[in-house]
Amino acid sequence: MTARAAHDVVAYDPSSFEGLQFHRAVDAFRSGTDTPRDYLERCLATIAEREPVVRAWAFLDEEGARRQADSSTGRWRDGRALSPVDGMPIGVKDVVETKDMPTEYGCAAFSGNFPRRDNAAVAALRQAGAVIVGKTTTAELGGPQPPATTNPFHSGHTPGGSSSGSGAAVGAQMVPACFATQSASSLLRPASFNGNWGLKPSQGAVNRGERQAGSTAAHGAVAACPEDMWHVAIAMAGRAGGDPGWPALRGPGDLPPAHRPFTVAVMETEGWPDLDPASHEAFEQVVEQVRAHGVTVLRREDAPVERFERALVGATALTTSLLAWEYSWAFRPVYEANPQGVSERGRQFFLDRADEMGPAGYEAALQEQNVVKQAYVAVSGRVDAVLSPASAGPAPAWDPDVPAAAGVTWPTGNPAFGTVSSLLGAPAVNAPLMSVRGLPYGVQVMGRHGDDARVTAIAHWLREIVTPVVL
């Protein structure tokens, strides 16, 4: 274990851990006993303290953030706040364009890339008064090659990917919320590993702007509480709308009220055998608490659930194949211009896989995806939500400074559980309700396309009734 991995260990307990919760600060902004500028300075102090080990940021714009926070301070003082996120310090995953900061995709081939324009969702956050602190790290090109970011609860473990920095920055209490994206398990897995609340919206529900290459990709939010998570998502969708041809995320301006479901289904996925005994037991304890509140729980012995589970066999490979083909057209010119600027893992994941597929393979993958979607229709029509672990247990050990680890297939963790919502285009929320071996471990709540508010309300209900599980 390296010197860096040997320290910065903080045992996580979901019943007592409390990250930054911006929504609780706004009353003090109104009364003048606190200001967005002072709130930002506290965030910057935490960043200065923890960033040398956590490494959550690809770029920081402290002076720009201070100017934004000063403007927000004036608006709150004058009673002209633009939205519930006015003054909220936010990190933006470095896969979307920002007019005042570089956009380098965690990839050496994009070093120095500076488009000088805002992604649609970033523009929406600015319009809502959010304070953009900087760009958070990402796995290379949003794929499997990890950045140097570490888990804020144990630096010898991964923060997940590809929204690595976004999840870690929230877990390290650097900022209350971050912009994140998901094409496979890129938001839900980091949310699970870092103790975040995370919303992966319905496909197309938040305008991706220039990020339209992947058919399963979505823009979302991670935060230390569901209130801030929801406020960020609504701020983006309410101003930028949805993707071309898709309706925007809809719901109340504040966190949807807690809603008890009548029936839920437990989804195991092909990741179920990879759960260690403690992770399996922690999730089952949550399920039993749900059942104890009068909720009917369907399992694999129920025919529609079993058919769905059978359809999910190979879902991870199917999703990554779809992504490889779609993104290869965006990334191939970059690789051809600078082959040394793309890692071997990135080349294999995006380009070699796409070459093996060809157009016929892609069309076959689309047909397989449709089979999974049809199987899900049969399940989702009978339940209010689907529950599963959000990840295959807590964050696995990972040290990017150890070259021998280069052969690991999924250095940012097994994506099997979080991938399903992307393949289906369904909304999903990570609720940080479990801890295993001192590390965060989340519960996923998934619903039907367009049911983002309802899924969030059910996750809110889980927060109200579940006694967090610590094993």
UniProtKB/TrEMBL annotation:
Amidase domain location: 39-455
UniProt-annotated stretches for the region Disordered: 138-168
Source organism superkingdom: Bacteria
Pfam families found in the cross-reference section: Amidase (PF01425)
Family: Belongs to the amidase family.
Record-given protein name: Amidase
